[in-house]
Amino acid sequence: MIIRQAILRHGRRVAPPLARSWKRNAASEADSISASLDRSLMETHSIETLLQSQTDKSIPPIDNTTHSTTDFHSDQAVQDYHTIKHQQQTTAHLGSTLTSTYAPHTLLTNPPSPSSITLELLLASQSHLGHSTSLWHPANARYIFGIRSGIHIISLDVTAAHLRRACRIVSGVTERGGLVLFVGTRKGQDRCVVNAAKLAQGCHLFERWTPGGITNGHQILGRCKMKVVDEFDREIKGYDRQLLDRPVLRPDLVVCLNPLENYVLLHECGLNGIPTVGIVDTDANPTWVTYPIPANDDSMRCVQVIAGALGMAGKEGQEKRRERAMNGEVTYRPEKLGEPKK
Q1: Which helix (H) or strand (E) holds 152?
Q2: In the prediction, which pLDDT does 216 show?
């Protein structure tokens, strides 16, 4: 009891000095923080003044209360935004609309038909650009329109005429059940070669030609599988043994998109009497192919236009053949292989 009263009596005397010391310490800490903030703010303002004197751009000032940058451009930015939107709404209907634009994938997905070949299309695909006059072949003189900046210009009238003739040849071969081989071994020609072969239901080659594929085809292509089909392209079973004794299948027409790199193929076709169609530039010999097409073989767009037109021509020939087969007319002479073995 005596100890409790002593603690209460002396506690009243000790508590006020402790509270006053705590308040004094808190006040001193707040003053020091406020002083440091003022010093940092003064340093920031001095840096702003220095930057303003060294640059032409306006720097937003620091607010003394919030210690953040003042967005004094906000009203001007909002006004500029509404001005731009108003101009867009009032001028949206003005100007012209470009309907005819070039999309590279359309030549593969929607190739031009032989009837749609125009001089404008050939000109846009750079078919008229030849090589330097120092690289020309004299046999191409009849295909050259003139000279521009040291480069031979190919006549587009001649190109269109020869391309239409080649389309008629491809269409006639496929209409009579012939096999067309499309060849293009340069970089980037693989897609257009494969697409043209699919349209004409032929074969394609976009890698190096194996020498002897035609002249020595029995040794090189002897193991290639063959099948027998009817006039509707339906496979007929039971002729596996008869096909073993037959020679290797050869193309009835070869379309070469780069004759300079495939001279061996063209030579083998000439030895075996296989007609050829090829793109002939001003530096190539037009006598290498049977039906030359004078054009720029270095332009990928030109090659895609020509390959697409020839592929569409082959497709038209296949459709004509099936239509005549529906009427009971066979456009080719079927070979006699005997009766199929079951």
Answers
A1: strand 151-154
A2: 83
